[in-house]
Structure formats: C-alpha cells, structure tokens
Design goal:
By secondary structure, the chain is mainly alpha-helical. Helices cover 57% and strands 8% of the residues. The radius of gyration is 11 Å and the shape is globular.
C-alpha cells in the first residue's frame, strides 16, 4: 500500500470528487473525471488507483467508488 499525502493533481481530484458528491450524492465515474480533467480514461483511472492505495477512496461491496477512511483527512489538508 502506498501511503503519504496525495500529489497536487490527486488533490485536484479529491476536491472535484467532494464537490461532485455534494451536488449529486455520489462520486463521479471515471468517465466524468476524465472529461473534467481533459485526460483519457487510463490517466483518470491511474489517479483513482493511487488514491485507493492511499486509502482516500475505496470500493463498496458492488465495486463502486466511495469515500475512504482518509478522504476527509485529505480534503482537510487542501483547505
């Protein structure tokens, strides 16, 4: 498992995911992330996997992304 603080770009993802969640009551899909950050799906997927390894996001029982145990810690570091 990778630990430590998220990179600047990963912080941007966490901010966007928090805002998206507040507006939609769910986290954005990989496709929505890729469109928002103007990158391909593999790039967005790589950032999410890194956030998963840092325990900032995780998957629920059916494989969808949810906020992980360190999501608010990471978000608190951004403010």
């Amino acid at each position: 498992m990778t630990s430590g603080r998220p990179t600047k770009r990963q912080q941007d993802y966490v901010k966007f995911m928090s805002k998206f969640f507040n507006e939609n009551d769910q986290l954005p899909t990989i496709k929505v992330l890729a469109e928002n950050f103007r990158c391909n799906l593999n790039c967005a997927w790589g950032h999410i996997r890194a956030l998963e390894q840092k325990r900032i996001v995780e998957r629920n029982a059916i494989g969808e992304w949810k906020r992980g145990p360190l999501f608010y810690w990471a978000l608190g570091d951004l403010e």
